[in-house]
Write a structure and sequence with these properties.
The chain contains 11 helices and 13 strands. Helix content is 44%, strand content 26%. The longest helix is centred in the middle third of the chain and has 16 residues. A 6-stranded mixed beta sheet has the order 10-9-8-13-11-12, sandwiched between helices. Strands 2-1-6-7 form a 4-stranded parallel beta sheet, sandwiched between helices. A 3-stranded antiparallel beta sheet has the order 4-3-5, covered by helices on one side. About 4% of the residues have low confidence. Helix 3 packs across helix 4 and helix 5 runs antiparallel to helix 6. Helix 4 links the parallel strand 6 and strand 7. By secondary structure, it is of the alpha/beta class.
């Protein structure tokens, strides 16, 4: 029976301890401050990232891992006893990561390495990699492992609330005037996952109303199906994420403990400090 190893990148928001437990190899997204290159979650995490952004008053850029970084992860997995490696990459709609992972497949051995475009971000991607690792541990073949991961994405619900448009304005994604007016009116944009990327769904005034709307959307999407797993993803806002999660638990039958994780620098640089994201896996 072939042994399969799972690789993913740090835009999956998958905690290192969970990745280690399931034998998942993490490849870091690059964070570039001028000429200085840092590795997400290894060299810099969300707290230090935003301390530096505030100090320098500028955003870094993000970069897909190099094919060489993926080659290193593939070779490590293969030398560790895997017969085949499956790499689940952040959506190609927002990153060149998938292309780099594919290039690395060619450099190593296309017959022994497969790259998958998850068309997902954050813990939707993370849950896909986790589901793949669990299926591989149960002895599933290659096609079934990938099908399990894709089915996980189809069961996923993701909604997030930004605390500010400041960082989108700094990155040129919204006009500065728009961000200033949003701050004046206390606008909290709500995001969801569409076509493989985080997309603006609604604009809601005040945190209270944004959280209430997110709860409504989660309840609506969960319906009567129930929730198998859930995660609270945040950017330097763990306490706020837990407070939101308590509100969600009042309206939905959820497993007792959510997975509470940082979004990670590869994504948080785009959403900004204070972001809270809910990810539900429907049964």
């Amino acid at each position: 029976m072939p042994r399969y190893a799972i690789v993913t990148d740090t835009d999956s928001s998958l905690p290192a301890e969970i990745a280690d437990k399931h034998g998942i190899h993490l490849v870091p997204i690059g964070i570039q401050f001028g000429q200085e290159s840092l590795r997400a979650d290894l060299d810099i995490a969300d707290a230090a990232l935003f301390d530096r952004i505030r100090l320098e008053n500028r955003l870094p850029t993000t970069a897909a891992p190099s094919p060489g970084a993926f080659c290193q992860a593939y070779e490590q997995a293969l030398s560790g006893g895997a017969d085949h490696v499956i790499c689940f990459c952040v959506s190609s709609a927002i990153s060149a990561t998938y292309a780099a992972a594919q290039d690395a497949c060619t450099l190593i051995d296309p017959e022994r390495v497969t790259a998958v475009d998850t068309l997902a971000v954050s813990m939707v991607q993370g849950y896909m990699a986790l589901a793949a690792a669990e299926a591989a541990a149960e002895g599933a073949p290659l096609d079934a492992i990938i099908e399990t991961a894709v089915a996980t994405r189809e069961r996923a619900v993701l909604y997030g609330a930004l605390s500010t448009l400041k960082y989108l304005a700094m990155g040129g994604r919204v006009p500065q005037f728009t961000a200033s007016m949003a701050a004046l009116l206390n606008i909290r944009p709500i995001l969801t996952m569409r076509d493989g990327k985080l997309d603006l769904l609604e604009r809601v005034r005040t945190r209270k109303h944004a959280w209430g709307r997110m709860v409504e959307l989660c309840v609506q999407d969960a319906g009567d199906r129930g929730v198998d797993r859930w995660a609270l993803v945040h950017v330097n806002a763990r306490d706020e994420a837990l407070a939101f999660g308590a509100q969600l638990q009042e309206r939905l039958a959820l497993p007792a403990e959510p997975l509470v994780v940082p979004l990670g620098p590869g994504l948080s640089v785009h959403t900004g400090d204070g972001t809270i994201v809910a990810v539900l896996l429907r049964t």
